Amino acid sequence: MSASSLPPLKQVRHGLRRTTETLATELALARPGNDMPAWTAVEWQLATAAAVAHGISPLLCRFSTWQHPAWRRFLVEQRQHVALRHERIASLLARIHEGAQALGIPLVALKGAALHALGLYAPGDRPMADVDLLVEDRHADATAALLVSLGYTEAFAQWKHRVFKPQDGRAVATLGEHSDTPINIELHTRVHERLPVSTVDITAQVWPHDAQPGLNAYPGMGALMAHLLLHAAGNLCGRSLRLIHLNDIALLATRMRHEDWAVLWAAQTPWWAYPPLRLVARYYRDAVPAPVLARLRTDCPVVLRTAMRTRRITDVSCSNLWLHALPGVEWSRTPGEAARLLGQRLRPTKEAIEERADMVRTQVWLQGQDWVTQGHRRRLLTWLTRPIPRMDTLYVVRKALEHVAA
C-alpha cells in the first residue's frame, strides 16, 4: 500500500487518539456490557492498529463484547495465534532450563515469562515478542553458546542486551501476532535503563540471592514490580509505552502487600517509578494504593511529575503519530542532563549510529523506508521543515488497512 492510500495523516492522528483512549478504558474496566463505540469504518481499522501496537488484542478478545463482525473475527484470530505461540515459548523455556541446569548456569526469566509463571495471564492472553533472560556476566558467553546449541545465532548487541535469533527463522510480515513468528531471545547481564541519558540500574534488586542452575524466578513480587516500572519508565521516556505494560503493572499491583511495595526503596530512591504508576492509576482506578503513589510522588522530580499531570497513554506511546525532537527531555534531572540529551540528538554517538543501523537491518517495519536511511543532517533539516510521522505507527496502520481490505 502506498502512502497515498492512507487516509490524511491528520485523520489518522485523531483516529488513533480516539480509539486508543477508548480501548484503554475498555481494557481497564475489564467487564462486559460497555456500549460499542460509534466509530467510522476508518476508526475501526485504526482501532485494530492500536490494539496490535499496544499488545492487547488477545485480552480484548476476552473482555470486550463489542459485536462488530470484523473486529470480533480479528480478536479471535489474534488470541489463537498468541496461544499457539505461547506453547512454542513454553517449550523453548523448558529447553533453556534443562540446558542451563546441565551447565550449572543460573538464569532469570524476565517480565512476560514471570507474569505467566505467577498465573496473572492465561496462555493466549498476553503476547510475548521475545524471551528475556538475565545472566551474570561470568556466565554470559556460556549462555550464548547454549543458545547457539539450541539453534540460535547472535544477531547484534547493544548497550542493553544481546539479541539472538533462530538460525532458520524468517520474519512474518503480517498484522499483529502470528504463531509462526520467530521467537527471539534477549540476553541481559544488567537490568537498567537510560532516563534519558543517565543510567538507572536495579540488577541487585532483581537477581535472586539463592539462584540455582536453570531458570529462576524473581526474588519476590516487589522485585518484579521494580523491573516492570523501570521498563515502563524507559518506554515512557522514549514515548513507546504500551497498554499491555500498564495492564501488567495493574495486575501485579493488586497482589502486592505493603512489604512488597517496600522493595522499591530497598536500594535507592525510585524517582522513576511515579510516572508509570501515575498512568496506571489514571486508567485502573483501584490498582495502586494511594499511600504508595503519594510517597513516590515526593520522590519524583518536580518537572517530571508536573509533566505527568495531564499525560495519557496516547501522549507517550506510538499512538502519538508525530516524532518528537527531544523525547524524554522532561526526565532530565539537571540542566546538564538536558544539555547532554540535546548534544546527542545533534551529534549522535558511534553507539547510537550502530544501534540505528542494527534496527534498520533487522526490523521489518523499517525496511524500505527512506527516512530512516537518510543522513543525520538531512533528517534534522527535514524535522525543522515539517512534522515526521513515526515509521512503526505507519507500518501497523498500513497493515491494518490491508488486513481489512483483504
UniProtKB/TrEMBL annotation:
Family matches, as InterPro entries: NTP_transf_5 (IPR039498)
Pfam family, one: NTP_transf_5
Protein name (Swiss-Prot/TrEMBL): Nucleotidyltransferase family protein
